[in-house]
Amino acid sequence: MIQTEIKQLGDNEHEVEVRLPKAEYERIHAAEVQKLMGQVKLPGFRQGKTPNHVIQKQFGPKIHEDTVSALLQQHYVGAIESSGLTPALQPELSLPPVQPDDAFVFLLKVATWPEVKLNKVSKLKFEQTEVTVGDDDVQSVLERLYKSQVSYEVISDRAAEKGDQLHVDFEGFIADEAFEGGKGENVALVLGEGRFIPGFEEQLMGKKADESCVVEVSFPEDYQAANLAGKAARFETTVKSVGEAKKASNDEELAKLLNFDDVAALMADVRQGLDKEAVKAAQTGTRDAALNALLEANPMRLAASLVAEDVKSTTARVVQNMKQQGMEATSEMFADEAFKTEVRERSERGLKLSVLIQALREEAGLELADEDVDVAVDAMVAEYPENMRDDYAKYIRDNQEQLGAIKDRLLEQKCIDYLAEQAKVSTVSKTLSQWQAEQDKVTA
Q1: Which domains does the chain have, with CATH numbers?
Q2: Residue 154: enclosing H or E segment and its boundaries?
Q3: Does the pLDDT at position 444 exceed 60?
Protein backbone atom coordinates (compact mmCIF):
# COMPACT_ATOMS: atom_id res chain seq x y z
CA MET A 1 0.00 0.00 0.00
CA ILE A 2 2.78 2.43 0.95
CA GLN A 3 5.28 3.51 -1.68
CA THR A 4 8.41 5.41 -0.73
CA GLU A 5 11.02 7.20 -2.79
CA ILE A 6 14.22 8.41 -1.16
CA LYS A 7 16.18 11.47 -2.23
CA GLN A 8 19.61 12.33 -0.78
CA LEU A 9 19.63 15.87 0.64
CA GLY A 10 23.09 15.98 2.20
CA ASP A 11 25.42 14.04 4.45
CA ASN A 12 23.20 11.39 6.04
CA GLU A 13 20.07 13.46 5.40
CA HIS A 14 17.28 12.17 3.21
CA GLU A 15 13.89 13.22 1.93
CA VAL A 16 11.40 10.36 1.83
CA GLU A 17 8.38 10.87 -0.41
CA VAL A 18 5.55 8.67 0.87
CA ARG A 19 2.65 7.83 -1.49
CA LEU A 20 -0.64 6.37 -0.31
CA PRO A 21 -3.47 5.34 -2.65
CA LYS A 22 -6.10 8.02 -3.13
CA ALA A 23 -8.66 5.49 -1.97
CA GLU A 24 -7.01 5.48 1.46
CA TYR A 25 -7.45 9.25 1.71
CA GLU A 26 -11.07 8.96 0.57
CA ARG A 27 -11.81 6.16 3.07
CA ILE A 28 -10.59 8.17 6.04
CA HIS A 29 -12.18 11.36 4.64
CA ALA A 30 -15.57 9.62 4.49
CA ALA A 31 -15.14 8.38 8.05
CA GLU A 32 -14.36 11.90 9.23
CA VAL A 33 -17.48 13.21 7.47
CA GLN A 34 -19.64 10.57 9.13
CA LYS A 35 -18.13 11.34 12.52
CA LEU A 36 -18.84 15.04 12.09
CA MET A 37 -22.39 14.40 10.88
CA GLY A 38 -23.13 12.69 14.18
CA GLN A 39 -21.68 15.55 16.19
CA VAL A 40 -22.99 18.76 14.61
CA LYS A 41 -26.48 20.23 14.48
CA LEU A 42 -27.13 22.84 11.79
CA PRO A 43 -30.24 25.02 11.51
CA GLY A 44 -32.99 23.24 9.55
CA PHE A 45 -31.60 19.75 10.08
CA ARG A 46 -31.94 17.20 12.83
CA GLN A 47 -28.71 16.09 14.49
CA GLY A 48 -27.20 13.26 12.49
CA LYS A 49 -29.38 14.01 9.43
CA THR A 50 -27.43 16.85 7.86
CA PRO A 51 -26.70 15.97 4.18
CA ASN A 52 -23.16 15.04 3.24
CA HIS A 53 -22.72 17.93 0.80
CA VAL A 54 -23.83 20.46 3.43
CA ILE A 55 -21.33 19.09 5.96
CA GLN A 56 -18.52 19.25 3.42
CA LYS A 57 -19.41 22.80 2.35
CA GLN A 58 -19.56 24.00 5.96
CA PHE A 59 -16.59 22.10 7.40
CA GLY A 60 -14.47 21.19 4.35
CA PRO A 61 -11.12 22.59 5.58
CA LYS A 62 -11.52 21.00 9.03
CA ILE A 63 -12.46 17.62 7.55
CA HIS A 64 -9.40 17.74 5.28
CA GLU A 65 -7.16 18.69 8.21
CA ASP A 66 -8.53 15.87 10.38
CA THR A 67 -8.20 13.41 7.49
CA VAL A 68 -4.58 14.33 6.92
CA SER A 69 -3.86 14.06 10.66
CA ALA A 70 -5.47 10.60 10.83
CA LEU A 71 -3.59 9.44 7.71
CA LEU A 72 -0.26 10.52 9.15
CA GLN A 73 -0.95 8.88 12.50
CA GLN A 74 -1.88 5.59 10.85
CA HIS A 75 0.92 5.44 8.28
CA TYR A 76 3.83 7.42 9.79
CA VAL A 77 5.61 4.44 11.37
CA GLY A 78 4.93 2.22 8.37
CA ALA A 79 6.36 4.84 6.03
CA ILE A 80 9.63 4.98 7.99
CA GLU A 81 9.88 1.18 8.09
CA SER A 82 9.16 1.01 4.35
CA SER A 83 11.96 3.49 3.63
CA GLY A 84 14.53 1.20 5.28
CA LEU A 85 16.09 4.17 7.09
CA THR A 86 16.82 4.31 10.82
CA PRO A 87 16.25 7.87 12.01
CA ALA A 88 18.75 9.42 14.40
CA LEU A 89 16.17 12.12 15.22
CA GLN A 90 12.44 12.49 15.04
CA PRO A 91 11.83 12.94 11.27
CA GLU A 92 10.45 16.29 10.10
CA LEU A 93 7.09 15.93 8.36
CA SER A 94 5.66 18.17 5.64
CA LEU A 95 3.10 18.16 2.83
CA PRO A 96 3.80 19.13 -0.78
CA PRO A 97 2.02 22.34 -1.86
CA VAL A 98 -0.04 20.44 -4.45
CA GLN A 99 -1.33 16.88 -4.10
CA PRO A 100 -1.50 14.56 -7.17
CA ASP A 101 -4.90 13.36 -8.40
CA ASP A 102 -4.23 9.66 -7.89
CA ALA A 103 -2.50 9.58 -4.47
CA PHE A 104 -1.96 11.24 -1.14
CA VAL A 105 1.65 12.29 -0.62
CA PHE A 106 3.60 13.43 2.43
CA LEU A 107 7.30 14.06 2.93
CA LEU A 108 9.68 13.04 5.68
CA LYS A 109 13.08 14.60 6.26
CA VAL A 110 15.13 11.88 7.89
CA ALA A 111 18.58 12.30 9.48
CA THR A 112 20.48 9.04 9.96
CA TRP A 113 23.65 8.02 11.75
CA PRO A 114 26.63 7.60 9.45
CA GLU A 115 27.56 4.05 8.56
CA VAL A 116 31.10 3.36 9.69
CA LYS A 117 33.48 0.53 8.93
CA LEU A 118 36.27 0.86 11.44
CA ASN A 119 39.84 0.94 10.26
CA LYS A 120 42.00 -1.72 11.91
CA VAL A 121 42.46 -0.95 15.57
CA SER A 122 45.88 -2.61 15.50
CA LYS A 123 47.13 0.23 13.27
CA LEU A 124 46.20 2.98 15.72
CA LYS A 125 49.02 4.78 17.54
CA PHE A 126 48.73 6.85 20.69
CA GLU A 127 50.47 7.60 23.98
CA GLN A 128 49.34 6.03 27.21
CA THR A 129 49.76 8.46 30.11
CA GLU A 130 51.42 7.44 33.35
CA VAL A 131 51.17 9.96 36.19
CA THR A 132 53.33 9.70 39.29
CA VAL A 133 53.27 11.56 42.60
CA GLY A 134 56.52 13.27 43.48
CA ASP A 135 57.80 14.98 46.60
CA ASP A 136 57.08 18.35 44.98
CA ASP A 137 53.40 17.39 44.65
CA VAL A 138 53.21 16.55 48.35
CA GLN A 139 54.95 19.79 49.26
CA SER A 140 52.52 21.81 47.10
CA VAL A 141 49.57 20.36 48.99
CA LEU A 142 51.19 21.13 52.32
CA GLU A 143 51.84 24.71 51.26
CA ARG A 144 48.20 25.13 50.28
CA LEU A 145 47.11 23.69 53.61
CA TYR A 146 49.38 26.07 55.51
CA LYS A 147 47.74 29.00 53.72
CA SER A 148 44.14 27.81 53.89
CA GLN A 149 43.90 26.21 57.32
CA VAL A 150 43.28 28.90 59.89
CA SER A 151 41.95 28.85 63.44
CA TYR A 152 40.87 31.96 65.32
CA GLU A 153 41.75 32.77 68.91
CA VAL A 154 39.37 35.19 70.59
CA ILE A 155 41.32 38.16 71.92
CA SER A 156 39.57 40.39 74.46
CA ASP A 157 40.04 44.15 74.42
CA ARG A 158 41.91 44.27 71.09
CA ALA A 159 40.90 46.45 68.16
CA ALA A 160 39.93 44.47 65.05
CA GLU A 161 42.48 44.30 62.24
CA LYS A 162 42.45 43.01 58.70
CA GLY A 163 42.42 39.20 58.74
CA ASP A 164 40.62 38.98 62.09
CA GLN A 165 37.41 37.00 62.40
CA LEU A 166 34.53 38.91 63.97
CA HIS A 167 31.19 37.61 65.20
CA VAL A 168 28.55 40.31 64.90
CA ASP A 169 24.84 41.00 65.41
CA PHE A 170 23.28 43.45 62.97
CA GLU A 171 19.96 44.77 61.71
CA GLY A 172 19.60 46.67 58.46
CA PHE A 173 17.34 49.66 57.77
CA ILE A 174 16.42 51.62 54.65
CA ALA A 175 14.87 55.00 55.40
CA ASP A 176 14.37 53.95 59.04
CA GLU A 177 12.47 50.82 58.01
CA ALA A 178 13.88 47.35 58.64
CA PHE A 179 14.00 45.19 55.50
CA GLU A 180 13.59 41.45 55.07
CA GLY A 181 16.85 39.49 55.23
CA GLY A 182 18.71 42.39 56.81
CA LYS A 183 19.06 40.88 60.29
CA GLY A 184 21.73 38.52 61.55
CA GLU A 185 22.91 37.18 64.88
CA ASN A 186 26.40 35.96 65.75
CA VAL A 187 27.40 36.10 62.09
CA ALA A 188 31.06 35.29 61.39
CA LEU A 189 33.02 37.45 58.96
CA VAL A 190 36.73 37.84 58.24
CA LEU A 191 37.84 41.40 57.71
CA GLY A 192 39.34 41.82 54.27
CA GLU A 193 37.65 38.89 52.53
CA GLY A 194 35.05 41.20 50.98
CA ARG A 195 32.10 38.86 51.43
CA PHE A 196 29.74 41.55 52.72
CA ILE A 197 28.37 44.66 51.00
CA PRO A 198 31.22 46.95 49.87
CA GLY A 199 32.20 49.24 52.74
CA PHE A 200 30.68 47.08 55.50
CA GLU A 201 33.85 45.34 56.65
CA GLU A 202 36.00 48.45 56.42
CA GLN A 203 33.80 50.26 58.96
CA LEU A 204 34.40 47.49 61.50
CA MET A 205 38.17 47.98 61.45
CA GLY A 206 39.37 49.09 64.89
CA LYS A 207 36.21 47.98 66.71
CA LYS A 208 36.44 45.89 69.89
CA ALA A 209 34.28 43.16 71.40
CA ASP A 210 30.98 44.44 72.86
CA GLU A 211 31.32 47.68 70.91
CA SER A 212 28.30 48.89 68.90
CA CYS A 213 28.30 51.09 65.82
CA VAL A 214 26.22 52.13 62.82
CA VAL A 215 27.53 50.94 59.46
CA GLU A 216 26.32 53.02 56.51
CA VAL A 217 26.61 51.50 53.04
CA SER A 218 24.89 51.44 49.64
CA PHE A 219 23.81 48.26 47.93
CA PRO A 220 25.47 47.74 44.50
CA GLU A 221 23.37 48.69 41.47
CA ASP A 222 23.50 45.07 40.28
CA TYR A 223 22.62 43.57 43.67
CA GLN A 224 20.74 40.28 43.33
CA ALA A 225 17.73 41.52 45.34
CA ALA A 226 16.19 44.07 42.98
CA ASN A 227 14.26 45.82 45.80
CA LEU A 228 17.57 46.69 47.49
CA ALA A 229 19.79 47.39 44.45
CA GLY A 230 21.38 50.85 44.54
CA LYS A 231 19.73 51.85 47.84
CA ALA A 232 21.49 53.41 50.82
CA ALA A 233 21.19 51.44 54.05
CA ARG A 234 22.39 51.55 57.63
CA PHE A 235 23.16 48.57 59.81
CA GLU A 236 22.98 48.84 63.58
CA THR A 237 25.82 46.51 64.50
CA THR A 238 27.32 45.01 67.66
CA VAL A 239 30.68 43.26 67.64
CA LYS A 240 30.37 40.13 69.79
CA SER A 241 33.98 38.95 69.56
CA VAL A 242 37.27 39.56 67.79
CA GLY A 243 39.37 36.54 66.82
CA GLU A 244 43.00 36.65 65.75
CA ALA A 245 44.04 34.31 62.92
CA LYS A 246 46.35 31.50 63.98
CA LYS A 247 48.14 29.44 61.34
CA ALA A 248 50.33 26.41 61.78
CA SER A 249 54.06 27.14 61.87
CA ASN A 250 55.21 23.54 61.46
CA ASP A 251 53.94 20.14 60.35
CA GLU A 252 53.03 19.05 63.86
CA GLU A 253 50.82 22.08 64.38
CA LEU A 254 49.26 21.63 60.94
CA ALA A 255 48.42 18.00 61.68
CA LYS A 256 46.82 19.01 64.98
CA LEU A 257 44.86 21.81 63.29
CA LEU A 258 43.48 19.29 60.78
CA ASN A 259 42.62 16.79 63.53
CA PHE A 260 45.19 14.14 62.58
CA ASP A 261 46.89 12.05 65.25
CA ASP A 262 50.34 12.98 64.03
CA VAL A 263 52.36 14.15 61.03
CA ALA A 264 52.59 10.61 59.65
CA ALA A 265 48.80 10.34 59.49
CA LEU A 266 48.58 13.73 57.76
CA MET A 267 51.23 12.78 55.19
CA ALA A 268 49.54 9.42 54.53
CA ASP A 269 46.22 11.19 53.89
CA VAL A 270 47.85 13.72 51.55
CA ARG A 271 49.64 10.95 49.66
CA GLN A 272 46.44 8.91 49.35
CA GLY A 273 44.56 11.88 47.92
CA LEU A 274 47.35 12.61 45.43
CA ASP A 275 47.51 8.97 44.37
CA LYS A 276 43.79 9.09 43.54
CA GLU A 277 44.31 12.29 41.55
CA ALA A 278 47.20 10.66 39.68
CA VAL A 279 45.09 7.65 38.72
CA LYS A 280 42.30 9.90 37.41
CA ALA A 281 44.82 12.07 35.54
CA ALA A 282 46.40 9.02 33.90
CA GLN A 283 42.97 7.71 32.88
CA THR A 284 41.99 11.08 31.44
CA GLY A 285 45.22 11.45 29.48
CA THR A 286 45.03 7.94 28.06
CA ARG A 287 41.32 8.32 27.30
CA ASP A 288 41.81 11.56 25.37
CA ALA A 289 44.74 10.17 23.38
CA ALA A 290 42.93 6.92 22.53
CA LEU A 291 39.72 8.65 21.45
CA ASN A 292 41.62 11.25 19.43
CA ALA A 293 43.41 8.43 17.59
CA LEU A 294 40.09 6.67 16.96
CA LEU A 295 38.55 9.86 15.57
CA GLU A 296 41.53 10.62 13.37
CA ALA A 297 41.56 7.11 11.89
CA ASN A 298 37.81 7.08 11.14
CA PRO A 299 36.66 10.40 9.65
CA MET A 300 32.93 10.80 9.06
CA ARG A 301 30.31 13.38 8.17
CA LEU A 302 27.26 14.01 10.31
CA ALA A 303 23.80 15.16 9.32
CA ALA A 304 23.56 18.93 9.81
CA SER A 305 20.21 18.60 11.61
CA LEU A 306 21.68 16.04 14.00
CA VAL A 307 24.52 18.40 14.93
CA ALA A 308 22.11 21.35 15.27
CA GLU A 309 19.88 19.39 17.66
CA ASP A 310 22.85 18.31 19.78
CA VAL A 311 24.15 21.89 19.87
CA LYS A 312 20.85 22.89 21.48
CA SER A 313 21.19 20.15 24.10
CA THR A 314 24.85 20.97 24.76
CA THR A 315 24.08 24.68 25.15
CA ALA A 316 21.28 23.85 27.60
CA ARG A 317 23.69 21.74 29.67
CA VAL A 318 26.26 24.56 29.70
CA VAL A 319 23.60 27.00 30.92
CA GLN A 320 22.43 24.57 33.61
CA ASN A 321 25.99 24.03 34.83
CA MET A 322 26.53 27.79 34.98
CA LYS A 323 23.37 28.23 37.05
CA GLN A 324 24.51 25.55 39.48
CA GLN A 325 27.76 27.47 39.92
CA GLY A 326 25.92 30.74 40.50
CA MET A 327 26.79 32.22 37.10
CA GLU A 328 24.42 33.83 34.64
CA ALA A 329 24.26 33.02 30.93
CA THR A 330 23.97 36.26 28.94
CA SER A 331 22.78 36.99 25.42
CA GLU A 332 26.30 38.27 24.64
CA MET A 333 27.69 34.84 25.50
CA PHE A 334 25.31 33.11 23.09
CA ALA A 335 26.22 35.59 20.33
CA ASP A 336 29.97 35.11 20.84
CA GLU A 337 31.46 33.27 17.85
CA ALA A 338 34.12 31.57 19.97
CA PHE A 339 31.43 30.18 22.29
CA LYS A 340 29.32 28.94 19.39
CA THR A 341 32.34 27.32 17.75
CA GLU A 342 33.35 25.60 20.97
CA VAL A 343 29.84 24.22 21.56
CA ARG A 344 29.57 23.02 17.98
CA GLU A 345 32.96 21.29 18.08
CA ARG A 346 32.03 19.67 21.38
CA SER A 347 28.76 18.40 19.90
CA GLU A 348 30.38 17.04 16.76
CA ARG A 349 33.10 15.28 18.73
CA GLY A 350 30.59 13.71 21.13
CA LEU A 351 28.32 12.49 18.32
CA LYS A 352 31.18 11.01 16.32
CA LEU A 353 32.55 9.23 19.36
CA SER A 354 29.09 7.78 20.06
CA VAL A 355 29.10 6.22 16.58
CA LEU A 356 32.67 4.95 16.86
CA ILE A 357 32.34 3.52 20.36
CA GLN A 358 29.17 1.68 19.37
CA ALA A 359 30.95 0.28 16.30
CA LEU A 360 33.94 -0.73 18.43
CA ARG A 361 31.71 -2.44 20.98
CA GLU A 362 30.03 -4.49 18.27
CA GLU A 363 33.29 -5.36 16.54
CA ALA A 364 35.07 -6.42 19.74
CA GLY A 365 32.02 -7.94 21.40
CA LEU A 366 32.42 -5.76 24.48
CA GLU A 367 29.62 -6.15 27.02
CA LEU A 368 28.89 -4.76 30.45
CA ALA A 369 28.22 -7.13 33.34
CA ASP A 370 25.95 -6.33 36.27
CA GLU A 371 28.95 -6.75 38.56
CA ASP A 372 30.72 -3.90 36.74
CA VAL A 373 27.85 -1.55 37.55
CA ASP A 374 27.73 -2.76 41.17
CA VAL A 375 31.44 -2.05 41.64
CA ALA A 376 31.07 1.44 40.13
CA VAL A 377 28.08 2.31 42.33
CA ASP A 378 29.88 1.00 45.43
CA ALA A 379 32.88 3.19 44.59
CA MET A 380 30.65 6.24 44.25
CA VAL A 381 28.79 5.75 47.52
CA ALA A 382 32.04 5.03 49.37
CA GLU A 383 32.82 8.75 49.11
CA TYR A 384 29.80 9.51 51.34
CA PRO A 385 29.42 9.09 55.12
CA GLU A 386 28.54 5.51 56.02
CA ASN A 387 25.06 6.39 57.32
CA MET A 388 24.16 7.92 53.92
CA ARG A 389 25.50 5.21 51.62
CA ASP A 390 22.45 2.94 51.40
CA ASP A 391 20.12 5.85 50.59
CA TYR A 392 22.51 7.23 47.96
CA ALA A 393 22.97 3.80 46.36
CA LYS A 394 19.19 3.42 46.13
CA TYR A 395 18.89 6.89 44.62
CA ILE A 396 21.44 6.01 41.92
CA ARG A 397 19.81 2.69 41.07
CA ASP A 398 16.33 4.25 40.90
CA ASN A 399 17.53 7.14 38.73
CA GLN A 400 17.59 5.72 35.21
CA GLU A 401 19.31 8.76 33.73
CA GLN A 402 22.18 8.62 36.21
CA LEU A 403 22.44 4.84 35.99
CA GLY A 404 22.55 5.14 32.19
CA ALA A 405 25.39 7.68 32.45
CA ILE A 406 27.35 5.27 34.67
CA LYS A 407 26.87 2.44 32.17
CA ASP A 408 27.95 4.66 29.27
CA ARG A 409 31.10 5.65 31.16
CA LEU A 410 31.93 2.03 31.99
CA LEU A 411 31.38 0.89 28.41
CA GLU A 412 33.57 3.71 27.15
CA GLN A 413 36.32 2.63 29.56
CA LYS A 414 36.08 -0.94 28.26
CA CYS A 415 36.62 0.46 24.77
CA ILE A 416 39.63 2.49 25.97
CA ASP A 417 41.13 -0.61 27.59
CA TYR A 418 40.54 -2.58 24.40
CA LEU A 419 42.25 0.10 22.31
CA ALA A 420 45.20 0.13 24.71
CA GLU A 421 45.54 -3.65 24.31
CA GLN A 422 45.23 -3.76 20.53
CA ALA A 423 46.85 -0.54 19.28
CA LYS A 424 50.49 0.47 19.06
CA VAL A 425 50.84 2.23 22.40
CA SER A 426 53.83 4.03 23.89
CA THR A 427 53.97 5.33 27.45
CA VAL A 428 54.63 8.91 28.49
CA SER A 429 55.37 9.52 32.16
CA LYS A 430 54.64 12.78 34.00
CA THR A 431 54.50 13.96 37.57
CA LEU A 432 51.12 15.12 38.81
CA SER A 433 52.31 18.74 38.93
CA GLN A 434 53.46 18.52 35.28
CA TRP A 435 50.09 17.11 34.27
CA GLN A 436 48.19 19.83 36.14
CA ALA A 437 50.36 22.57 34.59
CA GLU A 438 49.58 21.23 31.11
CA GLN A 439 45.84 21.20 31.88
CA ASP A 440 46.01 24.77 33.15
CA LYS A 441 47.57 25.87 29.82
CA VAL A 442 44.84 24.13 27.84
CA THR A 443 42.02 25.78 29.82
CA ALA A 444 43.66 29.20 30.04
Answers
A1: 3-111 (3.30.70.1050), 121-138+261-443 (1.10.3120.10), 150-247 (3.10.50.40)
A2: strand 150-154
A3: no
